[in-house]
Amino acid sequence: MRNAGVISGVRVSHDHATVDEVASASDDDVRTTVESLLTNEEVSEAFALHTCNRAEAYVVTDAQATGRRALTDFAPDVRDGAVVEMDHEQSLRHLMRVAAGLESLVLGEDQILGQIKRSFEEARGAGGIGPMLDDAVTKAIHVGERARTETEINEGALSLGSAAVRLAKSETTLDGATALVIGAGEMGTLAAESLAAAGIGELVVANRTLPHAEHVAEEVDVPARALPLSAVEAAIEAADVVISATGSPEYVLSSPHVETSGETTLIDLAQPRDVDPAVDSLPDIVVHDMDGLEAVTDETRELRREAAERVESMIDDEFERLLKSFKRKRADRAISGMYEAAEEVKQRELETALAKLDAQGELTDDQRETVAALADALVGQLLSAPTKSLREAAVEDDWDTIQTAMTLFDPDFSGGEPSFDTPSGPRGAIPEDASNDADDGQHVLESLADD
């Protein structure tokens, strides 16, 4: 198939879905998701993002309808109302909003930017990143970095871990309390640091890999110790607050683990869940999951509203720049094909003319250069107006003009379904990328770049 030109996306996230629905859509890791999407011969590029609050996938295909079909099975067990489909422009803008922290449960949180970068590398390693998603995700990361350096969107650096501690503080007294953190990854580490800052008396860190738990325990400024995950039941007996954030595919805590622990506040930050929902029915046990953090995060959202408005404006500007870049590439593909075809004709006719002139009397080098210059000038002048028209067509989303030019001048162009399938479709769709065009036509294109 020819180089594809439109992004389609789908997401299951905290704003429309429950914790369990997000978990269902995140069954596979990023690399597996990308590799699975690439098995569809109509998909030329693929990217996925899985976090505790969202599961998303993006594909690049020839047409929007094709992309939607390719994503049909992304979250087959999730109800329709929890799955949000995105067209080309919606996907581009959403990626920027996610990277900037505007779509996070905790507005402006920093962890999402690192998660996007890691997912980007995973997708690249799986062969999913081509020119279009490279531009789109790179731009999103750039916007995320600008948002955090040029605004106060992450002022206070509130993370899900620290939000969980705020929630715990509203449920029980943390001063002098014993806290248990299950999981020594990024989320668990943030929760441990926030608990230490809240004035707890003792911290216990439990993890499947004991050295990781020991490292977290050594880093906090309160008395702390590490335990293997197998010893977690005894640790819960002495804990006033438990925050769980592992990557386990199975429940880490079930009713037998906590039924004799007495009054305990338990906050589950894991995706999928660490805590069996049946635990919530036990007396003296208060369980909160991601859905229970809304009240805490709403306060942060209000404090950061002004910064969020500045970030929205920043995204608008960067979005328009990205669309213009995509449109220029769309025009350049057609223009390059036009110049390549003209160059082939010019070279063939020039060789024929020089051969005939040589037969009438050998030409000097100066005479040969004069004839060649004449041929170049004719090509440049004849194609100057079409070049201008094609660039205007790209700006105006005039697919018919672009397609006609590509059909006329590009022998490999197959025509077919346009890259957007309605008049109001994605303005940034790219039928072809100009990066593979022949060098013979490229120098002429460059010389006319400022026309």
How would the blueprint of this fold be written?
Elements: E1 6-13, H1 19-25, H2 30-38, E2 45-50, E3 54-61, H3 64-70, E4 84-86, H4 88-100, H5 111-125, H6 131-150, H7 160-171, E5 178-182, H8 186-197, E6 202-207, H9 210-219, E7 224-228, H10 232-238, E8 241-244, H11 255-258, E9 264-268, E10 285-288, H12 294-303, H13 305-360, H14 365-395, H15 399-409, H16 439-447
Parallel strand pairs: 5-6, 5-8, 6-7, 8-9, 9-10
Antiparallel strand pairs: 1-3, 1-4, 2-3
GO molecular function: glutamyl-tRNA reductase activity; NADP binding
Catalytic activity: (S)-4-amino-5-oxopentanoate + tRNA(Glu) + NADP(+) = L-glutamyl-tRNA(Glu) + NADPH + H(+)
Keywords: NADP, Oxidoreductase, Porphyrin biosynthesis
Describe the structure.
Helices cover 52% and strands 12% of the residues. It has 451 residues and is an alpha/beta fold. The chain folds into three domains: 6-156 and 306-317, 2-Layer Sandwich (Beta Polymerase, domain 2); 160-299, NAD(P)-binding Rossmann-like Domain (Rossmann fold, 3-Layer(aba) Sandwich); 332-447, no CATH class. Strands 7-6-5-8-9-10 form a six-stranded parallel β-sheet, sandwiched between helices. Strands 2-3-1-4 form a four-stranded antiparallel β-sheet. Residues 414-451 have low confidence and may be disordered.
Rg, rounded, reads: 29 Å
Instruction: Give the second-level CATH assignment, the architecture of the largest domain.
Output: 2-Layer Sandwich
User: What is the name of the CATH topology of the largest domain?
Assistant: Beta Polymerase, domain 2
- Discrete helix count: 16
> In percent, how helical is the residue content?
40-55%
Superfamily (CATH H level) name of the largest domain: Glutamyl-tRNA reductase, N-terminal domain
* Main beta sheet strand tally, sense and closure: 6 strands, parallel
Average pLDDT over all residues: 84
CATH secondary-structure class of the largest domain = Alpha Beta
Total number of β-strand segments? Answer: 10
Query: How many structural units, i.e. domains?
Result: 3
